[in-house]
Amino acid sequence: MSDTLATFAGSVDGERHRRFGSHLARSRKRVFVGRREELALYRTTIGDGSQAAVLYIHGPGGIGKSTLLRPFADEAVDSGRHVVEVDGRTTELSPESFQAVVGRVPEGSVLLIDTFERCQGLVVVAGREAPSTDWYIDPAWDETLHVLPPGDLTDDDALALIRARGVPPGLHASVTAFAGRYPLALSLTAAVVARRMSSSLDWSPTPNIVETLLRRLVGSTPSSLHRHALEVCAHAMTTTEDLLRNVFGDEHAAELFDWLRGLPFVESGPGGVFPHDVVREALDADLRWRDFAGYQKMHRRVREYAVEQVRRASGPSVLMAARAANYLMHHGPFKMAYRSWRGNGEVYETPYPLQDWSVVVEMAKQVRGGEPLHGLEYWLDRRPQAFKLYRSSATGPLLGFLAHLECDRFTAQDATADPVVAVLMDHYGGDMSAPTGGVLRLARFLVQAEGGERPSPTFDLMRLTVLADWLRTDRIAWSGRVLSDREFWEKEMSFLGHETIDAGRTPDGRSHTVFVKDWQAVPVDAWLETLSRRVLFGPGAKAATAASLTAPDGGGPVGGELTGNQWDEVVRELFRAWNHEDVLAANPLLQLVSGGTSPERVRRCGSNSWTWWSHCATT
């Protein structure tokens, strides 16, 4: 009787296992999206099994290698082929153990090996590392080996994935802003959001999500020094051995750079190495939350290096260096919606040749709907060296032009020819002259063939040119940038410490705003420190002065007045960080409390998040 019952129970359990396995398989298929090119390559190379082939899939953790093997196996089974699956993570590292796991492989079988880097040494394999050079040197593999590095999902496929995982529509933008198009980050974030949130609220990643991603994507590092090198690599736009030498000294730079360039989630480009965007965001967010004091030091060290590179550069490398310096703004309190740079070399800058006078004038008329651009012809003749042209690297046509005027004073003749200069001279009481030895810089025309004044590779390059000129011009006294779309640009220009002058309408009926900066009041180095404080502490951070740069603490991180929105943000940040002393000490709200922020005071203020304000305000 007991044997019969046991047999019956076993058959029931087996049926349950089969049904549960089928349920899991259906769930996986439901959320599998995209990868059409990869599946097509599998069908082409592996085909019907009539000839041997190796499809070598490699890429960083979380890019979707293991997920991609599942439909490969399903297609092979559907076509009646025998499938053998091996997971290198659970296989003993010996030929005997590997053979025991694989067993007998009939002809025409499909052998799937996951985490192949642990057992290198057959017919679809997948691992983090690319094939070793031995695979390429041996000519026997020329027609047999097919290498497939899966990239990020497309925008549409990323959206389809989080929809399939149940993310509410109102949170799609927040999820994709953090996770990008990286499969693991999308899946992990979607799982958390779908289970914990049901309304269309804003969402941001918690430290737990960031830590989980880092554990899956990065794993452990050989030492704390290696971890910090990875954090520098995440913070800088690109990392070179020279940058690491500046941060870590000569002794470790070469070793750390070699280690970074060998990581599967780190890529190489013309400017150095850089991590995948999701890894970059997770590393930066983790350090900022975990060790804010260390984060501040790292940010300033990277900024100082980046600015020095702009000042030392020459020729085309100036703009690349300016781009690296400008990238650090990305870590600020709001993601800059003011850049759209998608890569390197899409657009290039050239000096203005005099023979292109009519080309520039005609382009301006086309952009302005047939109307002339007032003041353009005057400045083309008077300051031709101030003009830069921007062309497509692929096709060569003119995409836009910039006039960044430099002079020691603007004259009455300039005002007569250019209505914007006339407004500026009237605003400054008729005298626009720099102090002895100083210069004025006016970005008068930023014109692109398409897109108006909105971000594009062309417009981004113009703005980098202006930034580089600010950093490289000796004794700059005043600068201005003339733009028509005030509503769009005012937030960024205010963050950059610029004031606005309404230039009214030119004779063609177009309104203009001049965003101006008095560099005598706030020299360039003090302005850079102010930007760092705003990146670190928010728009309400105290502005730096030339005198404060020599103070031991840099003049203190915060102060001044906060707007209503800024108050809301610093209060939220304080409650999020109340049990982390280093983050709490940097909070602007606590900085405003009389008595300073000694470690003991921070501990007392952070010990009870519900009574912190009354406690801090009265002790």
Q: How are the SSEs ordered, and which strands pair?
A:
Layout: H1 2-31, H2 36-45, E1 54-58, H3 65-78, E2 83-87, H4 95-102, E3 110-114, E4 124-127, H5 133-137, E5 145-148, H6 155-164, H7 172-179, H8 183-196, H9 207-217, H10 224-235, H11 241-248, H12 250-261, E6 266-269, E7 272-275, H13 277-290, H14 292-312, H15 317-327, E8 347-351, H16 357-367, H17 376-382, E9 387-392, E10 398-407, E11 409-410, H18 412-417, H19 419-427, E12 432-433, E13 439-448, H20 457-472, E14 476-483, H21 486-495, E15 499-505, E16 511-518, H22 524-537, H23 564-576, H24 581-585, H25 588-591, H26 599-606, H27 612-618
Estimate the strand proportion. Answer: 5-15%
Q: Give start-end ranges of low-pLDDT stretches.
A: 1-12, 14-18, 551-564, 592-599, 601-619
Helix count? 27
Overall shape: it is: elongated
Q: What average pLDDT do the residues reach?
A: 76
Helix content: 40-55%
The description of the largest β-sheet is: 7 strands, mixed
Going by helix content, strand content and strand pairing, the class is alpha/beta
